Task: structure prediction
Amino acid sequence: MLFPTYTFLYFLLVVVVGRWLLPRRAVLPFLLAASYVFYLSWGPIYGLLLAGTTVVTWFLGQLIERDPRYKKLWLVTGLVASLGTLAFFKYAAFLVQQVYALAGLVDDAVVPPEIEIVLPLGVSFFLFQMISYLVDVYRGAPSEPSLSRYALYITFFPQLVAGPIVRGGELLPQFDAIATRPLSKGPLAPRAFDPDRFAAGIDLLLRGFLKKVVIADNLAAWSDVVFKTPGAYDTLATWVGVLAYAGQIYGDFSGYTDMARGAGKMLGFELPDNFALPYLSRSITEFWRRWHMTLSRWLRDYLYIPLGGNRCGRVRRYLNLVITMGLGGLWHGANWTFVIWGLYHGLLLILHKAWLHLTGPTLIGRHRPSFLYGALAMAGTFFLVVLGWIVFRAPDVDTAFTVMGHLFDAPAVHTGPRPDDMVRAMWFLGALAGAHYLGAARWPKRLWAALPPPLRGLAWAGGILACYVFAGRPATFIYFQF
Result:
């Protein structure tokens, strides 16, 4: 049940109507049932793993809180169970292949077996939420006494399969507000039907549709061609393909987040944002504060800080950055390209920290950087990020090097008119750049807030029409594979 489909829209309509018409005591069970219907639409077998890990981690959370003498044991048990599950489904085949590859260096007759393990949809996301819940309870946060509310926190369908990664303290109080307290209490409490929140949800949902079906899918048509046959195109075509992927992955993933947050708002709940115009970042550190923010925060709080963070000297800090980003890259998939991508970003973060240490606060902190410095820093950061996306997108390291080579030294093999997909990609890259500018400016937000409801309705109608007229060939969400 993909988001930008009629099936999902009909499903969401039914869920929204049921959420606001049902008695308060029936809302959470109804949403839990709807979330399992959504997840089981991908395959019944997935639901067994989701339900089993949910029950186990909820029970361990109760033990951590109620049995403080052995709470470390229960935490380790939960971490081993969660990470072991993730390792089996995501990395077992990869590890076996590496073992046989090493054995093949000694004996050419060694043939690796064919291992196919179906990766459950969204397993990386919901297992990370379970881990964060267990660690938070271990650190003193209250456990959730209701198994059904905890299950809804894990399975809440807008964010179930591709995030954002939501912490228990962000979503569970909103559920508790429905179950145990008047709807009008608390800043996060879902109130009675709020037209403004509902309209904001529709706006986010439509914005996500536009990012996905208009921007990302049109850019995917050319980026897929370039990465499928990397040696067949000249420098300009290769650059357009690489930039198209940078735009595609942003439109694809931030579009999913917008749709998830929009659906959540329509149901009366707030989900955390995941993107803040990351391609306008002026440093790689700033980029990771703007890109996939819930994952960055998760890696910081549950990996980087427990490793020692920046509390153990500069060398240890740099080592912790490399470990964190390397594992963050591996989280994306069982492929050396993801590991290299993570280590690459770890190295960039180290270089940026070292640069700040050398220059001190004088250049960056006490004096506001000039426009030229900011523009150069933004362009340099974007260039480094785009180089990283080549490794991230390529199916293997050889393809990544081939694409990089053609960025700077490719024969002029092209004659005649450019392919339509390439020309279309250039247009939509310009549209994405313009959208970033508008997103950074204040006046579009003020103008939108000042529009009366009829004009907003016309704008929504225009957005819907754009989805029909300019939609690209449907492409699966990139982060569904993770």
The chain has 18 helices and no strands. Residues 183-187 have pLDDT under 50 and may be disordered. The CA atoms of residues 208 and 258 lie 5 Å apart. The chain has two domains: 6-193, 197-481.
